[in-house]
Each structure stands twice: as C-alpha cells, then as structure tokens.
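Researcher: Sit down with what I've pasted below and flag anything odd:
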Amino acid sequence: MRPILSLMLALAAMMCHAQVDLINRTVIRRDSSFIFEGMTNELVVTGTAARNWQLKARNAGIWPTDSSRVFAVRSYRIGADTFSLLQNGKVVLKKVFNVISSGNPVLRWGTLKTDTATTTEIIANKRMVMLLPGADHCPCRIVSFEIGFITAQSIERTNISRIEGNVLTPEAAGQISKLIHGDKVVFGPVRVNAFDGRTREIPGFTIVIK
C-alpha cells in the first residue's frame, strides 16, 4: 500500500508542474524563447499558482521582484543559456533561451510611420517615442530633443530650440502650424537615457510637410 501511495504522490507532483513554463514578457511574442542582451528582461513563471520559486542561469544576472513568480534578468553574452527553475531546491523546469542583441532603438513621432505628414498630424501626435524592434517596450527614456525648421526661404535649420522631455511644446506647435507643403520639421539631436543609465545624444529625424 505504501509504494502505491508514494507513486500517487509522485504523479500528483508531476501533474502539478506539468504546465509550468517560463516566458519573457519583455518581448512582443511571448512564445519566443529569446532574451535581449544588455537590458533588463522580465521572466515570468506561468501555468501554476505556486510560489517560492528560484531561478538560476550560467551567464545571466537574476534579481527577485515584488512578485515571487517574476524575475529580472540581464544577460551580457550572446548565445544560448539554460535557465533552471527550482522550487524547494528541486529543478522543475529547464529552458534554453537565446540571448540576442537588442539592436538600436528607433525614434518615431507618435504613431507616424512615414517621413511625410500634415501639420495637423504632427501636432496631434504631439510626442516623440522610442521603440526597440521586437520588444514590448523600450527601457530607454527620451530626456530632451532639439527641434528646428527648414522652409523654402532657408537651406539650414531655423528657430532651433531644445524641448525637455518628449512632448511638443505649445510654442513649437504654433511654429509647425505655420508651415506649408515642402517645409521640413527637423527633430534632433535627441538626448536619451540608455540601458546602462547613461545619457547619450543620438541622431534624430526629419518630417516633410505634405
């Protein structure tokens, strides 16, 4: 009777952890088994309500968060790394994640996806955003940016000013509203707070008025 009871307990434990998985909720496709290099990823334990999990890996730094099922992970070496998920000292899951380069962030004006727009569209979108291809969000922050204008009467930027933050000021919006077809709004250089916490200046972009 005792061996049968032991077998039943073992099977119950296996069923309890049968659906356990580890996903990276930093990426857009949650079924993707990859981690961005050099930035903080959030790995989440799914398929269970159990707590008190531990996570180990060979080439990644791992920190606990406010949730016992969420881990902050940062990897610095490109390639495959095996993550071991443990509970009460026992390995419940081993999963291989591919560590890939995060690439360069992409600057965009609001939801605009082209380099041409009407003055109304530029004013309505009103803010600069930074995207990381493949990621659900970009951990970089826009600190400030320059804005200037090239019109039919000028070949260089005029009325250059620096905007703190990433939102268009009323003064800049007023200047944009006076532009006509063929004029250009030059956004940048842009100062950003990067993955490592340092502030850097990166090139901006230009939008031509329709």
